[in-house]
Design a protein that fits this description.
Blueprint: H1 22-26, H2 48-72, H3 86-91, H4 109-114, H5 130-141, H6 164-168, H7 192-203, H8 214-226, H9 232-240, H10 246-256, H11 258-271, H12 292-304, H13 309-318, H14 346-351, H15 353-356, H16 367-387, H17 406-417, E1 419-420, E2 437-438, H18 442-477, H19 481-492, H20 503-510, H21 514-523, E3 531-532, E4 535-538, E5 546-550, E6 557-561, E7 567-569, E8 572-574, E9 578-582, E10 589-594, E11 599-609, E12 618-626, E13 629-638, E14 643-645, E15 658-660, E16 665-671, E17 681-689, E18 699-701, H22 702-707, E19 726-730, H23 743-751, H24 758-771, H25 794-811, E20 820-821, E21 825-826, E22 840-843, E23 851-855, H26 861-864, H27 877-885
Antiparallel strand pairs: 1-21, 2-20, 3-19, 4-5, 5-6, 6-9, 7-8, 9-17, 10-16, 10-19, 11-14, 11-15, 11-17, 12-13, 12-16, 17-18, 22-23
Length: 889
Amino acid sequence: MIICTRVLPVKTSSLWLGVGLGSVALFGLVGWMPSPARGQATGTKTPDAAESSAFFETKVRPVLVERCSACHGEKQQAGGLRLDTAEGLARGASSGAVVVVAGDVEKSALLRAVHYDGKIKMPPTGKLPAEEIAALTEWVRRGAAWPVTKGVQMGAPTSGGFTAAQRKFWAFQPVKRSAAPNVKNAAWVKNPIDAFILARLEAKGLKPAPPADRRTLIRRATFDLIGLPPTPEEMQAFLADKAPNAYATLIGRLLASPRYGERWGRHWLDVMRYADSADSRGLGSEGDFSEAWRYRDWVVDAFNRDLPYDRFVINQIAGDLLPPEDAPQAGGTKLAGLPATGSLNIPGTIATGMLALGNWGNGDADKDKILTDIADDQVDVVSRGFLGLTVACARCHDHKFDPIATKDYYGLAGIFFSSHILPKLTPKGAGELFLRIPLETKADTDRRAQFNTHTTELEARIKAEATAQYAAFARSMLPQTPRYLVAAWNYAHRPAGQATRALAEFAQAQGLQEVPLRNWLDYLGLNADYRLMTTPLRDVLNTPGIYTWRGVPDCPNLTVNTTDQAHMLLTFTLPPKSVSVHPGPNDGVAVEWVSPITGTVQVTGKAVDADPACGNGIAWAVTHRQGARTVPLASGEFPNGGKQGFAEGKTPQNLNAIPVKSGDRLQLLILPNGDYSCDTTTVEFVITQKDGAKENSHVWNLTTDLIDEPLRANPRADRYGNPGVWRLTDMAGSRRPTAAPTPELAAWNAAVGPSADPATLEKAAQEFSKAFTLTDARSPFALASEGEEGLLPAEGRAALSGLRTELAMLRKNPPPPVVFANGAQEGGVPESPHAGVHDVHVHIRGRYDRLGDLVPRHFPTIITGDVPAPKLQGSGRLELAQWIASPSH
């Protein structure tokens, strides 16, 4: 394709070819051949013929050779049928039967035979695996194409030696400079390429087209170089420019445009089977090559920066193994790309994304096959894209038309088996996760580590200082314990006329602080209810049938699985038809049954850790709230991954016969037992009426009552129609004890009641104060947050403020976030059969479970000839890249 009357000027690199000749000329140096579609290509669709050829060579020919050629091959043709050549297939059996009808699955006798649908069942030794039958069926459906390739036939399998004809084939000869041919119209020739074009035209009796007018010329040049039309302003400027170098100026401007790299880089991305996503359904997930765009941008940048072609090749195959780009290279040159320091070649690492972006059937449960498919994809893209050879066909057999032996394939594959694009293999049945390489130099990593260390140290100092200050405040308040006890009792039992009196006003009138007084009300069980969860969510994590009530901000919560199947969400599993709860960072979650009866009930149930992957185990308690007073009934705890029935906890006898009045509450508490983050707990909470006639006895089951329309309301009615029976609550901020009361609290509860006189209150408060020494976070005098630090003395506030200011200043200048690239690294996939660097055995017929000779890693011998391969360091990727890019090859 000539875009104008002359070949366009080229960019400065001697290894990039004239872009005016289009993509064929652009990639002519490496004998470019389009690769089969292996992803969601961004450019021109690969021809159907190439797709059919690739499908036949990788899926069909191996089956015919492995399963059929022994009886229907070169040495033997049972029934006169030969299935190792296109001619034999077309000729059919000696009976005249047509074996395959292109495009017609039903009429193809071959398919009936392999399906065992008729009298003839092939192969007679046993039915083919389903995937092989599917491959043959798809081949026939596509038209039963049998690729006819012109080339040098391998003939009989060889051990690496080639015939003279094979060695002399034109494609394997060194590139030679040809003299420009003589032409008749020498005046038309402006550069040597013109002479070659004109010679072919004159040989056909043709003449060059007349020069294009300037309006046509700028349109052709602009479309071809940047893929866009010229703007009206650009058009007018070119038409008005009468300078002799106007055209050269136009071309220079277009080559300098960022659109040039975007236009021409996409052709290379097609060759490299580029895709933005492995599967758009998982776009950006861990199982996707989410950083593919970095490789795309690297290619565009390489075109725009005129990166020399040898560097373009080497970076994509082994850029991670090159020295950092700010270090001098041989000849005083530097690699093109982004600046980098330290020991990491950042743009080179990004460039190896080419090896990571293949479509090799991620998700296959056969992990050994995944490894062989990855290596095959990499052999294929490197050999097609850089060498113009279909080496991948030799995975299963010596190549029939190109002089590539199976051992050459595995010599090359060993290089890629000794590299990896996966961090490790996932469990069987799970999709693989692509390697995400941090693009950080050592200096970046050291700075990040220093920042994190300093931040962690400051946070620890602030926490220690706050804990010390809070405890000191609590100790300073201990002498005032009697005053707060009496004031808390008086506020809880204030006259009806003062029911709306605010706690802050009451505390001020008593000369007390509001925060400690509120905490004492909580500690004595005189405070208001736990707060209700108010945020309902349906189809949690896009899972239909999973419903959640959420606290603030999102933990604690209560989740109901209304389906008949177990569902794994994140790291926890919700059993079918179940209720699970999760405590918050510092406080628990409570499910409350508000008694609609006066009588006697029994409590049964259990707690099961639904998230055994992490955490510190589970703590639980059942309490009885009577008016303003809470009585612990039973409690327990169990290790991570365990479970416990209420009958296995402490004091389970208290659950057998509980006298309740209408309005009393039985509460199931699930508490953080260390690290709350993995404490999702499946609970069963059942209250059974023990008195009254059997036919009138009721059973309240949390799970049964919540399964139907879980988000209907909170509080919600029971199945008998009693309103407000179930309350789903958040214990955040509560100081109410959840275990058995301490001796001093038990004595206080025994001494005072709703009508205690002032003298009794004062005496009980003094007795309580003698034994009360609590100063940690459980103490009513302990502060709970930074917002309550106004109660601290000035020097304490100043110490904490100074530390927090230092931390805030540090956080204003954090290191930049870590960025990642999908690419390749040295050594086979860690913790896999191919971990490390090693040669590989021939996989007979491409099967990893049928191993042949061990093949040293090497390059295709038809190209290297008798010259020994260079000594490989590590995987050999760098030596391979340098060999491919060397002008001598």
